[in-house]
Amino acid sequence: WRAALGADTPPPVYQNVFGDVTFNDYNAFYIQGIYNLGVTAGCGNGNFCPNVPVTRAQMAVFLTKTFSLR
Where does residue 62 fall: left (phi above 0), alpha (psi -120 to 50 degrees), or beta otherwise? Predict the structure, then answer.
């Protein structure tokens, strides 16, 4: 979110787009933001899997998508 839109741009309010992320979860608003930007669609079955480590391949996709927004 910050890489795409800058550190001063506030993230959107979380809208419960993932079954395993709640409004009060750490970084829920940023998760909503990267979802809105199309950077991620989650890990499948309507979940984001916030506690699963991200692989290098997954991070490469995140970064490529994020920097293509600039």
Answer: alpha
Question: Cα(1)–Cα(64) distance, rounded to whole angstroms?
Answer: 13
Structure-token match 């395993």, residue found = 20
Model-level pTM? 0.90
Which amino acid, one-letter code, is at 34?
I
Return contacts of 28-35, CB within 8 angstroms, 24+ apart: 30/1, 33/1, 33/5, 34/1, 34/62, 34/66
Q: Which pLDDT does position 13 carry in this prediction?
A: 98
User: With contact defined as beta carbons under 8 Å apart, do 48 and 29 qualify?
Assistant: no
Q: Any bridge partners for residue 47, and if so which?
A: 44
Residue 44 bridge partners (DSSP):
47
